[in-house]
Design goal:
The chain is α+β, with helices and mostly antiparallel strands. Helices cover 37% and strands 24% of the residues. The strands form five sheets. It has a seven-stranded mixed β-sheet, sandwiched between helices. A three-stranded antiparallel β-sheet has the order 2-6-3. β8 and β9 form a beta hairpin.
Length: 354
């Protein structure tokens, strides 16, 4: 996703871009939330047409509600984001987001290309032996990045931490009627639902990948949505994080998004940080003539932002992991302004994109 977004940004600068995709065909995934920080990065570095194409397939999220195990509600008004930036959070399926980005990128994607080697001088080797050379090589290949492994000493692992397992689905909203996204913190886990276009909803529930969800003992709205989802449209989800390094590239090679700094989905910023990365990297490549210097500038500028957001995501994991009575008291006693700040601070666009 972020690699495709970056490709479109770079083609608008006149660059000749080749996109290599390991999969034989596009993998869609389910749904994500995009916040103003990501969308304004797209508009700044990608252009108004990209911004409009993406927001067209998004559903606005006007508010968020957090429910304790006792049914107490902590409301978060997202209206100030609209007042300041023209939009709030947006729910979108990955498939529709990828279609929007692909439709405006102006690049061809080579599917079935497995990268087996990367040289800091800008050389990429594919599984079939083909060698490609570029002024810059960007690894946007996810948490298990082959490009990252190629830059690390032999034997270095992926370093995946804090595994989160869930089940997810997209279904008609049915009787669920909410001004935005709802999150339920219970003794059995965390559940969530957010709106999508076409009167659909995306839902997730914590759970082992070995035990498909049954709905017993869940909040009624979640049970109804899960029950309405065909069994073959319910998918397991996995997420990890890894503490960001200060420098994640060498020479003419760098990393983007989860390849550089995977973070937990607990604050909905993983994809947003990747799109911010794309916007900043495109801007640095446009402003700095030396490719390697542009990549190092991008890494240096991004580290404080992604590290702070990484810590916020871990902080939300700690909140989710608290004993139920303690978490209930924390959520019920937190002032509305503090709750709004906790939830929305990472969504504020960085200064260069406002």
């Amino acid at each position: 996703m972020s690699g495709l977004a970056l490709s479109g940004m770079l083609t608008r600068q006149g660059a000749d871009v080749t996109v290599l995709e390991r999969a034989q065909r596009r993998r869609d995934g389910l749904a994500i939330t995009l916040w103003p920080n990501a969308l304004l990065a797209l508009r700044h570095s990608g252009g108004e047409d990209v911004y409009e194409a993406v927001t067209k397939v998004c559903e606005p999220i006007g508010a968020a509600r957090m429910f304790t195990s006792r049914g107490q509600v902590a409301g978060i008004d997202l209206g100030f984001l609209v007042d300041r930036f023209g939009l709030s959070g947006q729910g979108v399926t990955r498939a529709e987001l990828l279609d929007a980005l692909a439709g405006t990128a102006g690049v061809d994607i080579r599917y079935g290309c497995e990268v087996t080697g990367v040289d800091p001088r800008g050389t990429v080797t594919l599984a079939g032996g083909e060698t490609l050379r570029a002024d810059v090589v960007i690894g946007a290949d996810g948490v298990g990045s082959a490009v990252r492994r190629a830059l690390l000493p032999p034997g270095t692992g992926d370093g995946r931490e804090n595994p989160l397992h869930s089940w997810q689905g997209v279904v008609d909203r049915g009787d669920w009627d909410s001004p935005g996204a709802d999150f339920f913190f219970t003794g059995r886990g965390t559940y969530g639902v957010m709106p999508l276009t076409g009167n659909r909803a995306y839902w997730f529930v914590d759970g082992s990948p070995d035990a498909p969800p049954t709905g017993a003992g869940w909040p009624a709205v979640i049970s109804a949505l899960v029950d309405a989802t065909p069994a073959d449209r319910i998918f397991p989800g996995e997420a990890w994080d890894r503490r960001p390094a200060r420098g994640w590239g060498q020479g003419r090679v760098t990393l983007l998004g989860d390849a550089a700094h995977p973070m937990l989905p607990t604050i909905g910023q993983g994809a947003c940080m990747a799109l911010e990365d794309a916007g900043v990297l495109a801007a640095r490549l446009a402003a700095i003539s030396d490719p390697a210097a542009a990549l190092r500038s991008y890494e240096q500028d991004r580290y404080p932002r992604v590290h702070k957001t990484f810590k916020r995501a871990r902080g939300m994991l700690r909140l989710r992991s608290m004993p139920t009575p303690v978490r209930d008291r924390v959520l019920a006693s937190m002032p509305g302004r503090a709750m709004t700040h906790l939830f929305t601070a990472p969504t504020i666009p960085i200064p260069e994109f406002r």
